[in-house]
Write a structure and sequence with these properties.
mainly alpha; 20 helices; MFS_trans_sf
Length: 444
């Protein structure tokens, strides 16, 4: 496998620090744009846990309807790697900025359309079919979002601050989740009849306003200096996807498995666990409020972990979070089984605030540093989005299956979850430390 040379520092790009006006605009764009896109994407996950089973899969037993709802949720995750490949190709060929504009418009259109979609009692089987199509579009759009948002920040940042700069796109994800959860929680206080008839639609329709705000901010950001250098050298003649899978297959696979650990936390705790504890009788609005607090703690964890990764390296920080996840897996599951709001809260805070935050903080820089500039958008997006598909997209269904296989017990789920953290930690340890890699250099 090709290896890159290292250098003590990259060329300074937009500024010598993260405190200049231009760099603050870049970081804000990365954070806000990512938050808006993930507001839309996570909003669907929340609605899938609460209402889609009843509205779009009417006539089925509740458990079957919930499973079908989670299946449509998985469709969006399946589409994310495809979106990463498509948008990554154009991001590596024509630039990061334009691709980000397209992904945002696509996401906003799909989410707003979901808010206007008739339910199955009005148009029959066409309702779930259209829901799946729109979820597919959401997956394609968010597949192209993260890689571009992360790279715009990382490729402008000074070498010694890359980890922290890249984390702004990662912090945008849980920030979007907080916003989505709080908006749904506010409307969930309506009487059930009103919430099911129109209340759930309003958060989706609000996406149109958020997208307009995001576009204004994103249009003011300049193209990254590393890409402009590459463009001047005319080094973008090959197909990025083919280069990634033929020249860097090991890095791609290791990046995917490393990223899965963080996403199993998201899929298990913010989707499956929400439905599980509500079925046990925990108040729906209380669960949503706790979920919002948990996402806020994830942002805090990402913030500190990313800064630590700039000082100590990506690998030590991420492996620490993965070992913590393996140790805490069974206690967290036991807390969920108490059937209380406080049990859910403590479990979620441990999982999202500590485990996911510590792993996810350095992950943007970690995966970007696995690939050279000419294929970085494609490689990083494929690794990240494939991890999301395998780690979060199927986790709710897998969790439900493991519980059934264990006769209703949760011990098997805890065991598999702990093992997944250990496998991811082994993959991180098998990669090179990227903190000192010269991103302006190509492989030798």
């Amino acid at each position: 496998m090709n290896q890159r040379t290292t250098a003590p520092a990259d060329r300074e790009s937009a500024s010598d620090s993260l405190n200049s006006r231009e760099m603050r605009r870049i970081l804000a764009s990365s954070f806000i744009g990512s938050a808006i896109e993930f507001y839309d994407f996570i909003l669907y996950a929340t609605a899938a846990s609460l209402v889609f089973g009843e509205l779009f899969f009417a006539g089925m037993p509740p458990a079957v309807g919930l499973f079908a709802s989670f299946t449509t949720l998985a469709v969006g995750y399946v589409a994310r790697p495809l979106g990463g490949a498509i948008f990554g190709h154009f991001g590596d060929r024509i630039g990061r900025k334009g691709v980000l504009i397209v992904s945002m418009v696509l996401m906003g259109t799909a989410t707003t359309a979901i808010g206007m979609l008739p339910t199955s009692d009005r148009i029959g089987v066409a309702a779930p079919v259209l829901l799946v199509v729109l979820r597919l579009v959401q997956g394609l759009a968010v597949g192209g979002e993260w890689g571009g948002a992360m790279l715009v920040a990382l490729e402008h940042a000074p070498a010694k601050r890359r980890g922290f700069a890249a984390s702004f796109a990662n912090m945008g994800g849980p920030a979007g989740a907080v916003l989505a959860t709080l908006v749904v929680s506010a409307f969930s206080t309506l009487p059930d009849e009103q919430f099911l008839s129109w209340g759930w639609r309003v958060p989706f329709l609000l996406s149109a306003v958020l997208i307009a705000v995001g576009l204004v901010i994103r249009l003011k950001v300049s193209e990254t200096p590393l890409f402009l250098d590459l463009e001047e050298k005319a080094e973008r003649r090959k197909i990025p996807l083919l280069e990634v899978v033929t020249q860097y297959p090991r890095n791609l696979v290791l990046g995917i498995i490393a990223g899965m650990s963080s996403y199993t936390v998201q899929g298990l705790m913010t989707v499956w666990a929400v439905a599980h504890v509500i079925d046990l009788g925990v108040d729906r609005t209380g669960v949503l409020n706790v979920k919002a607090v948990g996402a806020t703690l994830t942002i805090v964890g990402i913030w500190f972990a990313a800064r630590l990764s700039d000082r100590f390296g990506r690998k030590p920080v991420m492996v620490t979070g993965m070992f913590a996840g393996a140790v805490l897996a069974y206690p967290i599951i036991l807390l969920l089984q108490t059937g209380t709001l406080w049990g859910f809260a403590i479990g979620l805070f441990l999982a999202n605030g500590i485990v996911q935050g510590v792993i996810f903080g350095p992950f943007g820089a970690f995966v970007a540093e696995l690939f050279p500039t000419r294929m970085r958008y494609t490689g990083a997006s494929l690794a990240y989005q494939s991890a999301s598909t395998l780690g979060a997209g199927f986790t709710p269904m897998i969790a439900s299956g493991l519980v059934l296989a264990a006769g209703g017990g949760l011990w098997l789920l805890a065991l598999v979850w702990a093992l997944s953290f250990l496998v991811s930690a082994a993959c991180v340890r098998a990669t090179r430390e990227g903190r000192e890699v010269d991103l302006a250099g190509e492989t030798k």
